[in-house]
Amino acid sequence: MTLRTIDEVLRKASFFLRQHQREERVAEWLCMHVLQMDRAKLLASLRDPMPENTQAQLDELLHQHAKGQPLQYLTGQEQFLGRTFSVTPDVLIPRPETEELVMAVEEAIKDVFPGPPATIVDIGTGSGIIAVSLAGTYPHSSVLAVDISADAIAIAKQNAARHNAHIDFHHGSLLSPFIEKGETASVIVSNPPYISQKDWEGLEETVRQYEPKQALIGGDRGVELYEQIASQLPSVLEKPGIAAFEIGYDQGASVSKIMQEAMPHASVRCLQDMNHRDRIVMIVQ
């Protein structure tokens, strides 16, 4: 049997994805994944034959992606603020909007604290992208992360170890583990589930079928978890302190009101993302 070259396989894979209305460039990313090559090496190896077993592996991944399986779950990883994170269907796929949340928190810390904050808490850590990123920026801060999903915590621990981030993980709901222990925090940050049940039903099929529903839906109205967090904030957030939350594009006013009512003497403002949509509610006291 004559083996096809990598270039021939790549062209065929791109055509296959185009036929199934999928992004053609995914073929290149999957080739890099199965061949364990970076892009420069892949391009330099286009005339080389592709091993038969590797081609079979690629074909299987292509068919899974054609059915809707996200690329990140097929390769098991995604980039976030320059770091590579492991992802599985137990956690959400990292998104650029959350990168903006982390950067906004870092800017707020510069304005509020003379040095690194003493304690940072990440609520609903998922894959650990927020906690690991902040632990990397503030290695002398105590970083804690909580999630209601034990499976998500397992992935977050892998990512913390991968990036040598020292994080204290807690299995529990929102800020409850810290309230029970009487612990407080200088910075509280979260990208909680904020999609309403109705909006979830209208999401892309690839999201509804493959990403964890528990990490997406925030209740019938989408803001229920913000209400729960707001009721807990006064018991945990120190003064001076910062709390920052990623929100849905249409939740700026409602979440800001929830937080202002819970923290009447704090400064509450809504920040927009790169697409000029409401994306972050920032509380400073």
UniProtKB/TrEMBL annotation:
Residues bound to S-adenosyl-L-methionine: G124, T125, G126, S127, G128, D147, N191
The EC number(s) this enzyme carries: 2.1.1.297
CDD domains: AdoMet_MTases
Organism: Aureibacillus halotolerans
Gene name, Swiss-Prot/TrEMBL: prmC
Domain of life: Bacteria
UniProt-listed GO biological process terms: methylation
Protein name listed in UniProt: Release factor glutamine methyltransferase
Positions annotated to bind substrate: N191, P192, P193, Y194
Domain named Methyltransferase small: residues: 119-199
Free-text function comment from the UniProt entry: Methylates the class 1 translation termination release factors RF1/PrfA and RF2/PrfB on the glutamine residue of the universally conserved GGQ motif.
Entry similarity comment: Belongs to the protein N5-glutamine methyltransferase family. PrmC subfamily.
